[in-house]
Structure formats: structure tokens, C-alpha cells
Write a structure and sequence with these properties.
69% helix; Alpha-lytic protease prodomain-like; 2 domains; 9 helices; three-stranded mixed sheet; mainly alpha
Length: 303
């Protein structure tokens, strides 16, 4: 636990000058570079060993690079300010691109399962297993570092795209471990490479469904988690002059949170005082989020 906190403090210090969009783009850029590196070394390992699971892992890394490239440009577009045709901004593009993420990851899983099925009837011996293991260990370390950084960024920014990117790199990490296991056991059981490849394919499909779930939460305007809504309620009621909360609506759009509230105030409250109360409510809520759009309306209590 100490090490995790220590590493987070180091990351906080390094990226203290970055806003959330810049931090998210930095995370995705690192993902693209890591994926390209992984494709190169896994291609070498596949050609040297002839492993089906290694071929599947290389293909998955190639798709990872494509997905991360799409995510990077989606993040740039989502940060574009609102215009006449998009009055609420462009943050929803994160959810749309997450759907494409899901489709690409799902296709990757299907392709891995297909390759495993085709190889079952004619398993090929794996060559130079030690070279393959060394390359996959290097790959695993690289992916672990990327996942750690992306999870850090996801916590900081709440970006749906970064969360999705992290999930499919997590599947890549699990795949790397499976490939290492298959290389270690391939000399004892001819089909183990194919079995491990199939297991990884199933996990990749599961990861695709997780990405889809996150995208739908964003696109369908699902309310923020109850724990966060409770914090919002607490901040609203902490403002002097607020007697009740009549309506509270919350949703996410990419990295931005949207909060709408109707509060009750005393009937003899002047218009000027009511305006001050709503501003204080907005100020309290804004402390909870880095990017938030808040709309608060005051009405007479009990109306």
C-alpha cells in the first residue's frame, strides 16, 4: 500500500501542471507507443516460436494500437467547446468511440477463438520457447506499467475512453501471462497453447462487454453512482438558506459531470439572496469535480 501511495504521489508531482484532457491524451499516447513496441517484439517472438497464442497476442496488440489511435483523436474532439449545433459540447463522442472500442475488442476475441479452433485439429510444435518467454516477460512488464498509469489517469479524469483503453490493455496483460504459461507447458502437452489461446479469447470478449457497459452508462445519461450523489446532497444542504432539495439530476458526458438541482428556500427570501444561495450551492458542488456543468434553481419551500 505504501508503494502505491508513493508512486501516486510521484505521478501527482510529475503531472501537476496538466489539465484532465492533456493528462488523458498523454495516457493514450503512451498506449499507442507501447502497442507499437509490443507488436514489433511479439511479431519477432511469433516468427521464432510459431506459437498460436503468441500470434493471437500479437494480433490483439495490433488492434490495441488502432484503438488507442482512435481514442486519442476522440479525446481531442471531445475537448472542443460548444457551438451552435452542439450546445452542450462534444463530450459524448467519448461514448460513441467507446462503442467502436468494444467492436474492435470483440472482433479480436472472435478472431483468437477462430485461430484456436482451426489449430486444434493440427497442433504445431513450438520452437525456441525460451526466446518467446523472455520477449513475453518484457511485454508483460511494459503493459503492467501502462495499465498502472492509465488507471491513475482514469481515477483523476473519469474518462470513459481511458477506462476502456485500460480495460483492453488489461486483457493484453492477461493474455501475456497466458502465453508465457502456454510456452512453459507446450513441451508436455501439444494442445496447451491452443487451450490458453481460447481462454484468452473468451476473456477478451468479456472485456469488450465491460467497455460496452461503460459506453452505455455515458450515452444513456445514467445517474452518477449513489455514493457520489450523496456527497452532492451533503454539499447542497451545507449551504445556509437551503431548506430542502426538490430535484437532483446527475449524469456524465465523457470527463464532464452535469448536475441539475432545484432547491427550496424560505418564502420570504429576496431574489438577490436566493441568487447568492444558488451560487454558493454551485460553488460547493464544483469542489467535488474537476470538470462539471452545474445548474441550480431556487423555489419557495414546499411549493
Amino acid at each position: 500500500m505504501f508503494n502505491v501511495k508513493f508512486l501516486n504521489k510521484i505521478l501527482d508531482r510529475w503531472f501537476s501542471g496538466y489539465d484532465h484532457v492533456e493528462l488523458a491524451k498523454k495516457s493514450v499516447s503512451l498506449g499507442v507507443m507501447t502497442s507499437v513496441f509490443l507488436v514489433i517484439i511479439k511479431f519477432i517472438a511469433w516468427r521464432v516460436t510459431g506459437s498460436i497464442s503468441l500470434q493471437a497476442s500479437m494480433t490483439d496488440s495490433l488492434l490495441d494500437a488502432l484503438v488507442s489511435f482512435l481514442v486519442y483523436h476522440a479525446l481531442k474532439y471531445s475537448d472542443v467547446k460548444f457551438d451552435d449545433n452542439h450546445n452542450f459540447g462534444h463530450e459524448k463522442v467519448e461514448g460513441v468511440v467507446s462503442i467502436f472500442q468494444c467492436l474492435i475488442i470483440f472482433y479480436s476475441g472472435i478472431m483468437i477463438l477462430h485461430e484456436s479452433y482451426e489449430a486444434w485439429s493440427d497442433p504445431q510444435p513450438i520452437q525456441n520457447t525460451m526466446i518467446g518467454i523472455i520477449i513475453m516477460l518484457v511485454s508483460t512488464v511494459a503493459v503492467y506499467q501502462l495499465i498502472y498509469f492509465q488507471k491513475y489517469v482514469a481515477r483523476k479524469t473519469s474518462s470513459v475512453l481511458v477506462k476502456g483503453d485500460s480495460l483492453h490493455y488489461l486483457s493484453d496483460f492477461c493474455m501475456n501471462l497466458a502465453v508465457i504459461g502456454s510456452l512453459l507447458l507446450s513441451n508436455f502437452f501439444a494442445h496447451v497453447d491452443i487451450i490458453f489461446g481460447s481462454v484468452v479469447g473468451i476473456y477478451v470478449l468479456y472485456s469488450a462487454l465491460q467497455v460496452l457497459r461503460n459506453a452505455l452508462v455515458d450515452l444513456m445519461d445514467e445517474a452518477l453512482p449513489k455514493s457520489i450523489r450523496n456527497k452532492i446532497v451533503k454539499e447542497i444542504l451545507a449551504v445556509s438558506g437551503v431548506k430542502e432539495i426538490k430535484v437532483l439530476r446527475t449524469r456524465s458526458a465523457g470527463m464532464k459531470r452535469h448536475i441539475e438541482a432545484i432547491i427550496g428556500v424560505d418564502r420570504d427570501t429576496s431574489l438577490e439572496n436566493a441568487d447568492d444561495i444558488t451560487k454558493n450551492v454551485e460553488k460547493n458542488i464544483s469542489k467535488l469535480f474537476a470538470k462539471v456543468d452545474i445548474l441550480v434553481k431556487a423555489e419557495p419551500k414546499g411549493k
